[in-house]
Write a structure and sequence with these properties.
Layout (H helix, E strand, L loop, with lengths): L1 E5 L10 H14 L6 E6 L13 E5 L6 H11 L4 E4 L13 E4 L14 H17 L2 E4 L2 H11 L6 E3 L14 H10 L7 E4 L8 H15 L5 E4 L6 H10 L6 E3 L8 H6 L3 E4 L8 H9 L3 E4 L4 H5 L3 E4 L4 H10 L3 H14 L5 H17 L1
Parallel strand pairs: 1-2, 1-4, 2-3, 4-5, 5-6, 6-7, 8-9, 8-11, 9-10, 11-12, 12-13
Helix pairs in contact: 1-13, 6-11, 9-12
Length: 368
């Protein structure tokens, strides 16, 4: 099978968990040794970040080129059997060979107010039409699968829920030298709460910050937090709230952190707090389980499905509830119980399984 993959939207370090999805899925799939040939369509901002090998070929699409025409040219010239778009929509939309897309979630159908007008319009114009045109739709959880089926009216057999895993860095042996490097580089005092997320509206930074204020004012409890991630649409309101409420002495914001250092940010944390309002999966949940730290998280979207019984759940719209759970997760008995449950829950996830189930979908649409 000759598979073309549109990777033009992979912007290193900027697209959150979906970059880890793409890189890990491809790594495990391409090493399956089952006779497939892969053609990666890249651009100059990511070409150097993917490796060629005997069954993997890289093709550069210049940024100022007519990508639509080039895609059709290469699909014909390379005699591809399948076209895979792992990031959101079918491009080109009029591809004439079997095609598979991945829609991680359809948050815009539930929270349109979180999107700028042009982004919302683009999603409304492209998501459903891509889902209807493609041969199969992948998504990241049964929660997302059900929302896609309900909103887009697709037949059940066309949409496939395939869970992810933490990136491979979380399965490497512990490196004390790297651990000390990370502690010193970021001046970490172990035991902080950790929240890795770009400042998109749905990540719900503001209600977590309000919970920190409640803990400080009502209970005289100051929990240090470490945040990572790029500035996005909600960033200014988040920064303003921190300043107005004098929270900077509790918060360390690290922006982008190289992937190899991330496991050590988790391992030195006291817990993960994940207050998101809407998730298609939630890779940080599995990263925390693999790092053997406890979790407190939202009860929304896919989070209960992924976390299972390994998280202390809260209502993410209620800062008081978040505050109560943040205080509870500091208690030794609760921490130990959640860590044990997380170790067990993490067994449900693997990139090998993700790759195997994805390749099965590829084979099914090509056979048809």
């Amino acid at each position: 099978m000759r598979i073309g993959i549109n990777l033009l939207s992979v912007i290193p370090g900027k697209i959150g968990g979906m970059e880890q999805y793409v890189r890990n899925l491809l790594s495990y799939s391409m090493n399956a040794g089952d006779g497939k040939t892969w053609f990666l369509f890249l651009t100059n901002h990511n070409f150097h970040t993917f490796e060629s090998q005997s069954n993997v070929h890289k093709i550069m699409i210049p940024e100022n080129a007519n990508a639509h025409q080039l895609f059709h040219h290469w699909i014909r010239t390379l005699k591809l059997d399948l076209w895979f778009c792992p990031l959101l929509v079918l491009n080109p939309a009029d591809v004439t060979i079997p095609s598979v897309i991945n829609i991680p979630d359809i948050q815009h159908e539930y929270y349109p107010q979180f999107f700028e007008n042009h982004a919302l319009r683009w999603r409304l114009e492209n998501y459903k039409s891509s889902a209807l045109r493609s041969s199969a739709v992948l998504t990241l959880s049964e929660f997302s699968r059900q929302t896609i089926l309900q909103k887009y009216g697709l037949p059940a057999h066309k949409v496939h829920a395939i869970h992810l895993d933490a990136s491979k860095e979380f399965s490497l042996p512990f490196d004390e030298g790297l651990n000390q490097h990370v502690i010193q580089k970021y001046q970490l005092t172990p035991g902080y709460g950790f929240f890795p997320a770009n400042t998109w509206h749905h990540k719900n930074h503001l209600n977590l910050l309000k919970a920190l204020v409640i803990l400080r004012q009502k209970y005289d409890l100051r929990i240090p937090m470490v945040f990572t991630g790029f500035a996005q649409e909600a960033n200014q309101s988040v920064v303003n709230f921190i300043s107005q409420n004098q929270l900077w002495d509790q918060i360390k914001w690290l922006n982008y952190v190289p992937q190899g250092e991330m496991p050590y940010l988790y391992r030195n944390a006291g817990f993960l707090c994940f207050p998101s309002l809407f998730e298609g999966f939630g890779i940080p949940l599995v990263e925390a389980m693999r790092s053997q730290i406890p979790i407190t998280s939202s009860n929304c979207g896919s989070i209960p499905e992924v976390a299972g019984d390994a998280s202390l759940l809260f209502d993410p719209t209620m800062p008081e509830d978040i505050a109560v759970k943040l205080a509870a997760i500091l208690l030794p008995d609760i921490r130990d119980d959640l860590i044990a449950k997380g170790i067990n829950q993490a067994k449900r996830f693997s990139w090998e399984k993700c790759a195997r189930e994805t390749l099965a979908v590829f084979r099914s649409v090509v056979r048809k």
